Automatic annotation (TrEMBL):
PANTHER family to which the protein is assigned, alphabetical: FE(2+) TRANSPORTER FEOB, FERROUS IRON TRANSPORT PROTEIN B
Keywords: Membrane, Transmembrane, Transmembrane helix
Organism: Eubacterium segne
Transmembrane segments: 278-296, 445-469, 489-512, 524-548, 554-574, 613-631, 704-723, 735-755, 767-786
Protein name: Ferrous iron transporter B
Length: 793
């Protein structure tokens, strides 16, 4: 025999926190209402046969949104053996409204008053014995976050479920109301058990449409409704709501003692600033700038460089010991052996002749920056050679026959840990592995998977920030601030929550749209949520920022704001069309008090998100890397189709595909087979975009074209997983294709405008037919944005 215990309560009351603590699972917790949108089952620790069910939060048993229906249907149809009604102790009055309804379900109930730690800090006191007496069920106090009292609660809940002691309602409404309820109970058919009759009678009186659907026979209660409405001169739903509140306020006086204080709480003080009409947006912008700057440009880059160049590169000095000495020696060696006047002259000549990369080479020589020179030499030596400018001659002994610099050997300093490719390469050489396999393993798998894994540190840093902002309560303020602005355009701030979650990963973000009650608004959210850069798009941003913009600080935040811009303008434009017109649903969001998240919560949330990316690297990315490598090494060898270790991209299968479709992207500035292949592979998983550049060489793109490439990849159709989620949530193929089509068009036009107009401004492109098209796109866009809405006409 197995026992089912369900957790039911208001949104943001701590159900999932309690669920995680009692089952040892790791479900998503956030400090805003509506985090959980699906039911989740787990095994209660220490009780073999007890299953615990986490449900989405609900304010009442009259559901309005999809996830509320999930919770109510579970309670009514599946009838768990007991309900733990979790109540936010800091908001007890509002929470009890749901409790009075849960008591009517005829299922054993135990009440858990949560947030004991906060109550204690404030000096408020809840008299649980009195509360228990008045409500007619057992009441315990807990802190789900700190773990206080939760074991006791679990044991009591299990005992209660085993005892099968049906909850009987002790509260009474006004006599007239009770009379009508009794009358209605008499009309219900016999298949409804006695203890559930009150619940069904009240729902019928409240004209709850959805409850009729689950009843086998529906009695006619219109007379009873009329009677009640005449007597109270109000509609039945309000009458009953009112009765519940009258009852709650009659008991609350005796059960709660609040510490006297008229001082503003710390939360109120913070909110005065962060939700201030003028300051709110700039503060949000600064916060997100810092988050992206730190994750992508500073801490993140440092960690990512180490993984890319060290672990998945040549290797690294253990604990950095020896690095400084090595660099000093290298500089000295380069001064003496590399930078000669002869080399300088070649570079100057190259600049005059406009050879690709000449400026970079010249600057590196002028700065005596060997790292920069080595990189520029690697990229542009061929271009120099073509113009008859021979750098190798000038370099003399500084370079060996294979084109490797002969400077000091890193492995002679400190403790040198070779990178994975070096180790594996040596291993493969030792067993005389053939060329093909060595290439596939080193240049295909390790380079491809490594390129993606290398960015995991950056993602983890981003996830730490997100976890912190989410669980401290700031993100719910952002939704509140956004609501104020969105409302002006007929949009609801609720649409903002999926976006915040989507910053981690689009899939849960799309699922979060379930809290939007209006179907049109929800569809619109599904179409635009994945515009926000998710964790997997971070590597693309980092790659472009580092490779083309010298790691400029503004690139990463700009990608975030570009996503935001796409969402907001899309919202405004779409809302003005007939398809989506309509008043925004009211968005009532209480702002939960700020609190310091525990280190455990933040780390767990970071790990949960990070781990799914690492798993992806071992599966989808691994497979894609193999496909990309094979595709780029099989092709026309000159003597028919076959494998060649130094196949030119243009001759390969992949290159041919890229060449066939690359014209599509020519107006966007990346008329290049690699970038095209990367974009296509990005549909499988966004990280694969950098994976492709790991396998195929990154050929120098010009900055504006690079930014257009970035914009297109950020905004176009998301990865397969997210597309699947859109399909599921839309539940309609036509709408799915509308969504994908819309995103792709939006991305294409944005990238077009960036490349054509941006390029014209910085002098990268000339004036042409596409410039005119780009200008027309901008005009059309502004028109759609500012035209009067259909509704007003
Ligand atoms: N101080 C304090 N905070 C808590 C406690 N329990 C939960 N929280 C915090 O309250 C917030 C909401 O917790 P969740 O567990 O996501 O709430 P939920 O009831 O599952 O919310 P929904 O899924 O939206 O219905 C989180 O920020 C938790 O860290 C507690 O006992 N004390
Ligand atoms: Mg939850």
């Amino acid at each position: 025999m197995s026992i089912k215990v369900a957790l039911a309560g208001n949104p943001n009351s701590g159900k999932t926190t309690l669920f995680n603590a009692l089952t040892g699972s790791n479900q998503f917790v956030g400090n805003w209402p509506g985090v959980t949108v699906e039911k989740k089952e787990g095994k209660l620790k220490g009780h073999k046969d007890v299953a615990l069910m986490d449900l989405p939060g609900i304010y009442s048993l009259s559901p309005y949104t999809l996830e509320e229906v999930v919770a109510r249907n579970y309670l009514i149809n599946e009838r768990p053996d007991a309900i733990i009604n979790i109540v936010d102790g800091t908001n007890i009055e509002r929470n009890l409204y749901l409790s009075t309804q849960i008591m009517e379900l005829g299922i054993p109930v135990i009440m858990a008053v949560n947030m004991l730690d906060v109550l204690e800090k404030r000096g408020d006191k809840i008299h649980i014995n009195k509360l228990s007496e008045k409500l007619g069920c057992e009441v315990v106090e807990i802190s789900a976050l700190k773990g206080t009292g939760i074991r006791d609660l679990a044991n009591k809940a299990v005992k209660l479920a085993e005892s099968k002691k049906k909850n009987t309602v002790v509260h009474k409404f006004a006599n007239e109301v009770e009379e009508v309820i009794d009358e209605t109970k008499g009309l219900l058919s016999a298949d409804i058990p006695e203890e559930q009759k009150r619940f069904f009678a009240i729902k019928l009186l409240e004209r709850d449409e959805k409850i009729r659907e689950i009843m086998r026979t529906v009695p006619d209660v219109s007379k009873q409704i009329d009677k009640l409405e005449k007597a109270f001169d109000d509609d039945t739903e309000s009458i009953i709501t009112n009765e519940r509140y009258v009852y709650i306020s009659s008991i609350i006086k005796d059960c709660v003692t609040k510490a006297k204080s008229d001082k503003l709480t710390a939360s109120d003080k913070i909110d005065r600033i962060v939700t201030n009409r003028i300051l709110a947006l700039p503060i949000f912008a600064v916060v997100m700038c810092i988050v992206y700057y730190i994750s992508v440009t500073t801490v993140g880059t440092w960690a990512t460089d180490w993984t890319n160049d060290g672990v998945f590169g040549d290797g690294f000095h253990l604990f950095g010991i020896g690095t400084a000495q090595y660099e000093e020696d290298l500089d000295k060696w380069a001064d003496e052996n590399v930078f000669s006047t002869e080399l300088e002259q070649i570079a100057e000549k190259a600049v005059k002749e406009n050879v690709a990369g000449a400026e970079e080479v010249k600057d590196a020589i002028a700065d005596k920056d060997f790292g920069a020179f080595e990189e520029a030499y690697g990229s542009y030596n061929d271009a120099f050679d073509e113009k008859g400018l021979n750098m190798d001659e000038a370099l003399g002994d500084a370079i060996d026959e294979e084109g490797e610099f002969t400077g000091p050997d890193t492995s002679e300093y400190g403790v040198w840990v070779p990178g994975i490719p070096v180790l594996v390469g040596n291993g493969l050489e030792a067993i005389h592995c053939n060329d093909f396999l060595t290439g596939l393993i080193i240049d295909g798998i390790i380079a491809g998977v490594g390129a993606v894994l290398g960015f995991v540190p950056q993602m983890l840093v981003l996830f730490i920030f997100l976890a912190f902002l989410e669980s401290c309560g700031y993100m719910s303020r952002v939704a509140f601030i956004m609501d104020r602005i969105f409302r002006k355009f007929g949009l609801s701030g609720k649409a903002f929550i999926p976006i915040l979650i989507g910053t981690g990963c689009g899939v849960p973000g799309l699922m979060a749209t379930r809290t939007i009650e209006n179907d049109r608004d929800r569809k619109m959210s599904l179409m635009t949520t994945t515009f926000i850069p998710c964790g997997a798009k971070l590597p693309i941003i980092a790659l472009i920022a580092a490779a083309l913009f010298n790691g400029a600080w503004w690139v990463a935040p700009s990608a975030y704001f570009l996503g935001m811009f796409a969402i907001i303008t899309s919202g405004i434009i779409l809302k003005k069309t007939k398809l989506f017109a309509g008043e925004p649903a009211p968005f009532v969001m209480e702002l939960p008090a700020y609190h310091w998240p525990t280190v455990g919560t933040v780390l767990r949330s970071m790990w949960e998100r990070g781990w799914s990316f690492i798993k992806k690297a071992g599966t989808i990315i691994l497979l894609s890397s193999i496909v990309v490598w094979l595709g780029s090494h099989f092709g026309n060898t000159g003597s028919g189709f076959g494998y060649s270790s130094d196949m030119e991209l243009a001759d390969s299968v992949l290159g041919s595909i890229g060449n066939v479709v690359k014209w599509i992207f020519a107006p966007l500035g990346f008329n290049d087979a690699t970038a095209t292949v990367a974009t296509i592979m990005g549909l499988v998983a966004k990280e694969e975009v950098v994976g492709v550049f790991g396998v195929l060489d990154f050929e120098g793109m010009l900055p504006v074209a690079g930014y257009a490439f970035l914009a297109f990849n950020l905004l176009c159709a998301p990865c397969f997983a997210a597309m699947g989620a859109i399909k599921r949530e839309m539940n309609n193929s036509k709408w799915f294709w509308i969504a994908i089509g819309y995103m792709t068009c939006f991305a294409y036009l944005t990238a077009l405008v960036i490349y054509q107009i941006g390029g014209l401004i910085v002098g990268e492109t000339g004036f042409g037919i596409f410039t005119i098209i780009a200008i027309l796109v901008v005009i059309g866009f502004l028109y759609l944005l500012f035209r009067p809405s259909k509704e007003n006409n």
